[in-house]
Amino acid sequence: MSRDERDMSGRDGGEGSGRDGGPERVPGAWPRRRADGWPEGARERRVATGGVELCVLELGDPVAPTVVLVHGYPDSKEVWSKIAVRLADRFHVVLYDVRGHGRSSAPRPLRGGFTLEKLTDDFLAVLDAVSPDRPVHLVGHDWGSVQSWEFVTVPRTEGRIASFTSMSGPSLDHFGHWINSRLKRPTPRRAAQLLGQGARSWYVYALHTPALPELAWRGPLGKRWPAVLRRMERVSGDGYPTASLPEDAAHGAWLYRDNVRRRLARPRPDPYAHAPVQLITPLGDAFLSERLYDDLERWVPQLTRRTLPARHWIPRTRPEQLSAWIEEFVISVEGGRPEPRTATGRHADRFGGQLVLVTGAGSGIGRATAFAFAESGARVIAVDRDGETAARTAEMARLIGAPDAWAETVDVADEEAMEKLAEKVAATYGVVDVLINNAGIAVSGSFLDTTADDWRKVLDVNLWGVIHGCRLFGRQMAERGQGGHIVNIASAAAFQPSRVLPAYSTTKAAVLMLSECLRAELAGRGIGVTAVCPGLVNTNITATAHFAGVDAAEEKRLQKRSARLYGLRNYPPEKVADAILRAVVRNEAVVPVTPEARVSRLMSRFTPGALRALARVEPRL
Length: 621
Prior knowledge:
With 621 residues, the protein is an alpha/beta fold. The chain is 44% helix and 15% strand. It has helices spanning 81-87, 116-130, 143-151, 172-184, 188-200, 202-207, 212-218, 220-233, 245-265, 314-317, 319-334, 348-351, 364-375, 387-400, 415-428, 452-480, 502-522, 552-569, 573-586, 595-606, 608-615; strands at 3-7, 43-49, 52-59, 66-70, 92-96, 136-141, 161-167, 277-282, 303-308, 355-359, 379-384, 405-409, 434-437, 443-444, 484-489, 527-533, 546-547, 590-592. Helix 13 crosses helix 19, helix 16 packs parallel to helix 17 (502-522) and helix 20 packs across helix 21. The model is unreliable at 1-31 (pLDDT under 50).
């Protein structure tokens, strides 16, 4: 084996180096880039092995733990660009073009040149070049994951791999045993699983067809593939896919022809993993069923499972989440942090790892909702105009189970502040998966006593705050193209006219109708919208409510009396939080939560006259 290394930048890790010194920068945003799109700090080398030369790229500090990223089909190493620059803040990141792909040369002849044995030779040659003395942390996607399962289960790599993160690519040995178990012990459910995966694997059969795949990729399919990715996966830009795609795809067909039928027909009897494995399963993968990973613990004693509501090409569509999970897993294996915690919440399989932003998270329903998502393993951004309460919510969310939680101090009524928040969240944490527009204030008093200033304040927070959140974060969800969910906290007051809550009821009715309109508009983009309408819930909203038309002393008395009445009702905000998570899971449109809210909604639909009569009754406070 020979190798030749070139440093393309001369970067010395001085000012601007990120975590360990110099000004902090946004994760994944390098100060300068080369003409090929990689950061100027990237170092390129050639590694010769088995009659081919591999193009290897390195980022980050070589002294740090090494993370090796292996791409799939029909990709090149550029599929990892968004993740590589994020991980390079903390790790020595290594990417290489698999033989016959990108800037690596192809074997001659092609037939027999892509066997798992030869791919393992290539991997070990790369390790000898970039990390000869320390085991590496392996990450694979698609066929990069398929071949990495071979790496992590063969004896000759034992001791060279510290951990393995797999996404969208099964072990062919496990796949073979999975098929055999369903053929030998058939049940209706197992037969359905087998037929379902068989239908998803249509492309595998096509790639075994002689010559036709090569003609298609070098002809119309190669030209149209970027458009296919944009339409089906919402993947585009940043130099991906590269100009080498048609040749990469034509060569890569031999990955399937050299390995799939042979290994599925005769899987190894004991393909045990000799390193901890993190399995990340995108639930919307059009090519692989999540059932394919059933019973994987049989071969992997140390297995961490994660799920993501996304499609197949998650290195391009979910780089923030994947980077966070890879970092957490690598650090846990390195001994710097406890093993990744398993979420214990009822909906952990749905929200684990998702990014959830909650406004008004400093207290009441907002705080309870942030905690509920944290228990389900979500990453939580707690937003409140009171920075101290937001910080306490984020700190408690981390203790409860959130893998990460952050606090942001923002007044939702401030359009400019909300725009800056949306920009910061997208650049630093990623696109929000679930948005909870919860922040709100209460104004009580007759219409004639409610001043124009009172109206402006309640409209700015209760309605415009929701509009700002939906407009800014909803647009980001739509542009990402991977779906999402928006929850707007309205109120039972949206159904129920009241002579003492005209301003508050108006804003909540507007939030309800806004939610219905958005639900119709965004459904085609895979974004759900829910209006949650609680009744009397024991929070501090009454203690801070403004009562129009009375002096300060009387307002204080009314606040205390209202808070006491709500306390006697004692409906906890945690029940509302449970209803919110359940509504997102079920994609419900309108959710009245308390008994009085459900009664008010029914009366508004079937006996509106009775509801109007009740509204005329003057309450006694």
